[in-house]
Amino acid sequence: MSDTITIVAVLRAADGAAEKVAGILHRAVAPSRAEAGCRGYVLHHDRSDHQRFVFVEQWADMAAIEAHRQAPHYLAMGKALDGLIVEREVMLLDAVP
After folding, report:
1. ABM domain location, by residue (predicted)?
2. Fewer beta carbons below 10 Å: N end or C end of the chain?
3. 84 near 45, Cβ under 8 Å?
4. Is the Cβ–Cβ distance between 78 and 32 less than 8 Å?
5. Confidence at residue 16, expressed as pLDDT on a 0 to 100 scale
6. What's the whole-model pTM score?
7. Can you list the pairs that 27-36 forms with residues at least 24 positions away whose Cβ atoms lie under 8 Å?
8. Given a cut of 80, is residue 49 above it in pLDDT?
9. For helices 62-70 and 72-81, what crossing angle results, to 10°?
10. Per-residue model confidence (pLDDT) at position 79
11. β pairing state of 52-59 and 38-45
């Protein structure tokens, strides 16, 4: 089994906020990919639901995830999204061998 931890984070923008949310989320992609321990970080937009965004991330270990959660760009993203997200689900996943 790989030690890589996959995160799937599903976010739903408030009505009328999808475009603004998309911009905020997109700005976090490049700096997140540059973090030590990041093995993949892709933002998706649901074709069937304009308000839903999905991050699929891969991290080396929990220490890398905790460092990511304290990174300035991650904290800025959270602050910028305040009041713009109505649903959020985050799953930390291990691959099944």
Report:
1. 5-93
2. C
3. no
4. no
5. 97
6. 0.92
7. 27/73, 27/77, 28/73, 28/74, 28/77, 31/71, 31/73, 32/57, 32/68, 32/71, 32/73, 32/74, 35/64, 35/67, 35/68, 35/71, 36/64, 36/67
8. yes
9. 60
10. 98
11. antiparallel
pLDDT tens for residues 29-46? Answer: 999 999 999 999 999 999
Asked if residue 3 lies in contact with residue 61, where contact means CB atoms within 8 angstroms, the answer is yes
Interval 38-59 mean pLDDT? 98
AA letter at 71: A
Where do the structural domains in the chain lie, given as residue ranges? 5-94
